[in-house]
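Fig. S4 source data, part A: sequence.
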Amino acid sequence: MLRRFLIDLRHNLSAGVRVALLRPVSRLDFRVSPSQFVAVALFAAVVASLVDLAVLQWHAQFDSAGIGGTVRDSAVLLLLSWIVAVGLRVPGALVALPIVYFAAGWFPDLAFAGIITAVGASGLGGRGYVTALWWVILGWSFVVAWRSVDVVLQGEGRFGLVSRAAAVAVIFGGTLVVALQYPSPRFWDEPALAQSVDAAAAQTPKVQSEEVLSAQPRLLFEALTNLDEREPGTTNTYFVGFAGDASQDVFRNDMESAQEVVDERLNTEGKSVVLINSPRTVLEAPLATVTNLRATLATIGRLIDVDEDIAVVYLSSHGSPDHKLYVNFPPLQLQQLTPTSLARMLQESGIRYKVVIVSSCFSGGYIEPLKDPQTIVITSSRADRTSFGCENGAEFTYFGQAFFQEALKTTDSYIDAFELAKNAIARREKADGLAPSEPQIYVGADIKRKLGSTKKPVTLAAAVGSHPTR
């Protein structure tokens, strides 16, 4: 019996591939039974889980809620098939249609997962390629739905184009609407989403609680009003940190540790503000929101001597292929940070000399909107590459550790620190078998002259006036 069951499953999957590849296929090539419906549905769910893993670059955590999602999606398809069977008065379509649809639909999903994995491993993915690929796969899925209806209605000459189109609209349109409007839980998700708050953080007040909401304005006010007055006669450096994602401790770790290093190396103690999204710090630090970042930059812009002083801005979070920095603290609905909005904030603040450091995937996209003669822009990756280390259990991101915890402790030059960090990251990625992130740097001509010639190591201490400028 088991052997017969497996043979039938093989027939169904083989015929389904022919449907997906637009090859000749007959309804008789499919083995229709309730047990085969369950089998092809499970097979399709396994392939769909591979898509989730591929999109997440194979760094994910299993979520058992995905089992319920699979059951729900199968039930929805059965319901839609029942509507088609009753509407067209073809009782056999109730089981045959979902079997054909599942048996063929897994193949575009597998192709999607394979392409994303191959492109991610090669590092050749361009901007927005995932979105473009998704539309291609969606079109392919529509063709699969049409062919599935065609196969099930073979021999039913009484149904013309209108009837078949209506059946496709019910099956394809119905499943798409349900998936978009009421997405089901997935088998695999980002570790941050599957385990967003650990036991210690769970004991802190919720970000939406009255205690936190009433404390946050005070925390921002104190952070900005407690900034030290600038020291006259010398170049002062101010530090602004922004840890955008509350669901992973690694960004908070990155920011707090970077502040310690920068306070020591750049002499920014009393002149640094960090904005952090973390359940652990909701009563200690202002939230990392676009509004708070704008207010912080505007305040520093009023304090500094624009012809002398330097602002160092460090952003750490996830990043998207369209170069948005992820700003996240559920259940708050927070505005995402884009390169153009950051450039506008900096321009409105009046800050002239600045070093902007962005640690996120696809962060190279920040260079073009931010670059000007008075700015250094350092990013953890190329505009079309991912960076690494942003995962639960990691103490620091690859870039945060290499640049702040290692390079800045051995050299006092921005450019030298970048080169040291870039080489260290490349070695680590190669050892881990990862596609190179290729950190980037842009150095404006004016700030380069201000810091001194790069032919000789220029210390950050010298840049802020602790020693005579070379």
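Fig. S4 source data, part B ends here. The radius of gyration is 28 Å.
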